[in-house]
Structure formats: C-alpha cells, structure tokens
C-alpha cells in the first residue's frame, strides 16, 4: 500500500480478591500522528504534516517521517520514494537506509520487494533491483509483474502485451508457452492465472495447465486496454477478475455466479479473540470475551496484540494484553474510623509488567483521583485513601472501585469488597455506688461517659428512660480522652428498685444501650426537731 496522506468504628474488612476484567491496554506510541498504516512484518508507515516514515511495534520511529512516499514492508524491507515514485532508499527493520543512486522509479501498485527483488523502471523498460540497491536484472522488459515464489511474469515482445513468459531471479526464462500466453499474473500457492487464446486459465510452476481451478472465462480483445494496472481489474466478457498488490488473483465476479474469492484478505485479524465494540461514537475492545472501556474515536486496524487507534484528532498505537498491567490490593484488612470521621486505608499498586509504567492515575469510586508518576518493573507504591461509613447499621458492606488510567487510557476497574463492623469506644460508668437525699426531695444521680479515642465525639445524644418515660435528654460533645458528666434526678418515697435504660447515640453509628437496675433504700432517722425531720435515701447499683 502507498502512503501519502460516631463511635470508634473499626472496619473489619473481609477483603475478597480484587476482581475486574483481566486485560490491559497501553500506549505503544502516543497519539501524535496524522495517519498510521496497518502493520506489515512488524512495521507501519506513519505520517506527520504530509511526510512519511516508519515505526515498529515497540513504538520506535525507525525512519523519521521526512519523505514524500513510503510503501508497506515486504520481504524484510520498505521502499521510500519521491512524490513521482523515484526511488530514494530501501529501509530495513532497524531503520538502516540503502541509498539508491541510479534514477529508477517504482511501480506504484507493486512497490514492494518479493524474493529479494523490486520491480523498477528506467522510464522506458522494466527490470529488477536487489536489496543492495543494484540492478540485478536490467530494465529490458516492456511489461512485467513482481517476483512471487521465485517467478515473475514478463513479456518477451516489444509491445508488451503478448508472448508472456516467467523468469527466475537469475533472469533466465523458466516457463514459456511458445508465444501462447497472451497475459500472465503472479504465482500464489504454486498456481498462476494466465490468458491463453483469450481464455482465462490456471497453470502450475512447470507451466502445465490446471483444469477446474478457476472459471475459464473469455477475455475481451485488446487485453492492454482491458487491464487496469492501478486497480488490478481485468475486464472479462462475462465480468471482472481482480488482482491484488502482488499481482495475484483475488476474485472473479460475474453476473451469473456473483463474486468468488481466491485469496484470504490480508487484513484479516490473526486472533478471533480480539474484537472491536462501539458505544455511540466511541470504540473499545473485547479481549477474550471481556470488554474494555469505549474511549477511542476510531480503530483503524488491529491484530492479536496491537491496534491503531484515533484519540481526538491524532492516531496512536496501543498494545492489547490479556494480563493486567498492575495489581491493586489493600495493605491491611483492618482500618479504623472514629465517630464517623474518614478512615485512612492504604492502597498498594504494583507494576506487573517487565517495563516501567508512567503517568498512572488511580480513580476511586468516581470521587477521588490520585496519580503515580512512574512504576518500575515489580515496584509497588502506596496511595492513602479516605473511607467513611454511611449508615448507623452494625455492619455495612462497602465496594471500592479502582480504575487505573495508563497515560490517558482507561483500564477496566478493580473492585474490592469490604464488610464494615462497628465497635463502641464510649464507655458509660457511674462515679459512685450510692447517693443520699432527704425524704420527699429529688435525688441527683451522676454517671460519666468516657471517650477512649483521641478524636472529638461531636453531638453525643444521651437519653435516660424509666418505664419508657424520658427522664433525661442531653446533647454534648466530648473531647478526645475526655469525660462528660451526666446528672439526672429521681424521686423515691420508699425502698424500691428502679430499672433505667440509658441510650448514647452518635451520627452514623449504632446506639449504645445500657440497662441498669437502681435500688432506692430510704433510711429514716428520728428527727431532733419535728419540723426538721431528716430522711436519708441511698441509691445502690
């Protein structure tokens, strides 16, 4: 192909193995090219500002985009020409250039090496150039096809459209049919299509005719005018025969039989496990049955390991891998949140690739994003996350979604599930075991709430009930390691036992409930003054 264009809450985390789709997509070459051709023999043509060069599968520009035209690699090399097809150089896969000093031009349709030789013209006749840049077969043929399977079709006549034969790379004639071949094409799998006595036929490498291999259709008179060298179409009386860029029969189409294909399309994916999917205007991939995010504007070519994609206005090259690039785990399976405040969790990101990863971003549950500049092979780095409990249930399942971004390419997310359980850290205790008071007077009962954490407990609600009747209701904050004293009054006229319910509650935390039975014991002393009778009451826990 030619190219020219509340409470201390502890997270008891049951961390199941992180799950997600097992594959990764990475940039091999950043999207900075105006065009990239499909890969051929591990090399693709690249275009920047109208100039062409070559890039390999590792993303290395083996030939800078500085030339008017380049052609797809074949036989281990690529051909570089000017805009009018004058051959300037031959490039190998390492980017070494063999400069062509002779003034020779390539055939635009057949500008690829085959069997170590390239079809060229001096402007009058056709010959063959070798990889060293020298003419191996002089320009002496009026018409010729490229070499394929060590044979090339050439004309032995002056006009170039009769007396066809096949020559070897040495230049010696290998197949000749006593001037009976009116036209010939290139060999493929030991067979070639020729025209004998205006009839389409197939021959083997000995020149013997093979019956039943192709429809033996009639070719219109004046083959020179019926064959289009640019499109490869040969007009038949009943239809059209099409030949590809190597001069091989690709298909025959007639009104009676429709289109018959004789070659496997060269751009067919080598791996059916890789497929392209779309979502609106964006495209992504299905790798081994599992989908990747749709994020590319175009997928112009792909095979089992590599794809050429468009992102924005430019083209780049990505790798398609069934294996993850990174692993994502939590450093500890138990973390703590105090009174509903965010808890710190340490996420460990490890590079599983044998190469350095750069510009890695981690998106967590659609809320936060953190970046890692680079990760060397097998290197791990830690990211600190903040997690909060959202309900006052005693346990809560949390799912953390981690979506890696490798250099601007979203990867499939990892999901880590946790189960959060609450553990109270506020302690209720009475300061003394008995209280004294006079008969008929209210007795003050005191108890403490101790904050065992270092954090402030905001808006702690404390309620005391006697037989479901509220006798105390208060809201206060308790400093870290602090103690809050609570007092309420109760009346007793005789020895009795009262059952009290104390409830302490924080936001996003289950309540603490304490049931206490309080015994009121009234001691009556004989008064010294009848008008000042003193009665003491004791409250025993």
What attributes does this structure have?
single chain, mainly beta, Immunoglobulin-like, Methylamine Dehydrogenase, Chain H, 5-stranded antiparallel beta sheet, 1 helix, 1% helix, 54% strand, disordered C terminus
Structure in a nutshell:
With 541 residues, the chain is mainly β. It contains 1 helix and 50 strands. Residues 5-22, 266-270 and 532-541 have low confidence and may be disordered.
Structure in words:
By secondary structure, this protein is mostly beta strands. The protein has 3 domains: 6-17 and 324-421, Immunoglobulin-like; 33-261, Methylamine Dehydrogenase, Chain H (7 Propeller), CATH 2.130.10; 426-540, Immunoglobulins (Immunoglobulin-like). 1% of the residues lie in helices and 54% in strands. It is built from 1 helix and 50 strands. It has a 5-stranded antiparallel β-sheet, with no helix packed on it. The longest helix is centred in the middle third of the chain and has 4 residues, at 223-226. The protein starts with a strand and ends with a strand. Residues 5-22, 266-270 and 532-541 have low confidence and may be disordered.
- Overall structural class, as computed from helix and strand content, comes to mainly beta
Low-confidence stretches: 5-22, 266-270, 532-541
- Please identify the top-level CATH class of the largest domain: Mainly Beta
Average of per-residue pLDDT values:
83
How many domains? The number is: 3
Q: Radius of gyration in whole Å, from Cα?
A: 43 Å
In CATH, the architecture of the largest domain is 7 Propeller
Helix fraction?
A: under 10%
């Amino acid at each position: 192909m030619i190219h020219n264009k509340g409470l201390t809450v502890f997270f008891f985390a049951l961390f199941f193995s992180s799950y997600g789709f097992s594959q990764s997509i990475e940039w091999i070459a950043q999207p900075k090219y105006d065009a990239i051709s499909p890969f051929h023999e591990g090399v693709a043509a690249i275009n920047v500002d109208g100039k062409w060069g070559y890039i390999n599968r590792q993303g290395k520009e083996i030939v800078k985009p500085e030339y008017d035209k380049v052609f797809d690699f074949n036989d281990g090399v690529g051909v570089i020409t000017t805009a009018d097809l004058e051959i300037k150089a031959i490039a190998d896969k390492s980017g070494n250039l063999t400069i062509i000093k002779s003034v020779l031009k390539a055939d635009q349709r057949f500008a690829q090496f085959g069997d170590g030789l390239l079809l060229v013209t001096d402007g009058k006749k056709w010959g063959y150039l070798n990889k060293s840049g020298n003419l191996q077969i002089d320009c002496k043929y009026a018409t010729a096809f490229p070499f394929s399977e060590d044979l090339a079709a050439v004309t032995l006549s002056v006009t170039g459209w009769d007396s066809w034969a096949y020559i070897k790379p040495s230049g010696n004639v290998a197949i000749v049919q006593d001037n009976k071949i009116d036209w010939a094409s290139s060999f493929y799998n030991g067979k070639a299509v020729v025209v004998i006595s205006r009839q389409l036929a197939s021959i083997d490498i000995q020149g013997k005719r093979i019956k039943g291999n192709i429809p033996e259709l009639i070719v219109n008179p004046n083959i020179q005018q019926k064959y289009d060298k640019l499109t490869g179409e040969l007009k038949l009386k009943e239809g059209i025969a099409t030949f590809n860029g190597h001069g091989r029969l690709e298909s025959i189409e007639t009104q009676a039989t429709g289109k018959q294909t004789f070659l496997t399309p060269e751009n067919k994916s080598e791996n059916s496990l890789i497929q392209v999917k779309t979502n609106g205007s964006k495209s992504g991939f299905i790798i081994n049955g599992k989908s990747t995010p749709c994020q590319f504007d175009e997928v112009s070519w792909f095979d089992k390991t590599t794809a050429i994609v468009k992102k924005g206005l430019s083209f780049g090259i990505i790798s398609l891998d069934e294996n993850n690039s990174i692993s994502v785990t939590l450093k500890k399976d138990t973390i703590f949140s105090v009174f509903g405040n965010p808890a710190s969790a340490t996420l460990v990101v490890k590079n599983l690739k044998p190469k350095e990863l750069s510009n890695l971003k981690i998106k967590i549950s659609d809320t936060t994003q953190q970046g890692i500049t680079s990760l060397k092979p097998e290197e791990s780095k830690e990211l600190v996350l903040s997690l909060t409990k959202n309900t006052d249930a005693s346990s809560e399942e949390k799912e953390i979604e981690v979506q890696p971004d490798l250099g601007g390419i979203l990867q499939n997310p990892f999901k880590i599930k946790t189960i959060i359980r609450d553990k109270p850290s506020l302690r209720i205790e009475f300061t003394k075991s008995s209280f004294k008071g006079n008969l008929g007077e209210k007795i003050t009962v005191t108890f403490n709430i101790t904050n065992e954490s270092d954090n402030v407990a905001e808006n702690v609600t404390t309620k005391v009930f006697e037989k479901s009747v509220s006798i105390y209701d208060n809201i206060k904050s308790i400093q870290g390691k602090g103690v809050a004293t609570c007092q309420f009054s109760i009346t007793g006229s005789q020895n009795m036992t009262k059952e009290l319910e104390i409830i302490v509650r924080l936001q996003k935390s289950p309540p603490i409930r304490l049931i206490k039975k309080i015994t009121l014991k009234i001691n009556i002393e004989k008064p010294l003054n009848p008008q000042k009778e003193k009665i003491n009451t004791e409250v025993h826990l």
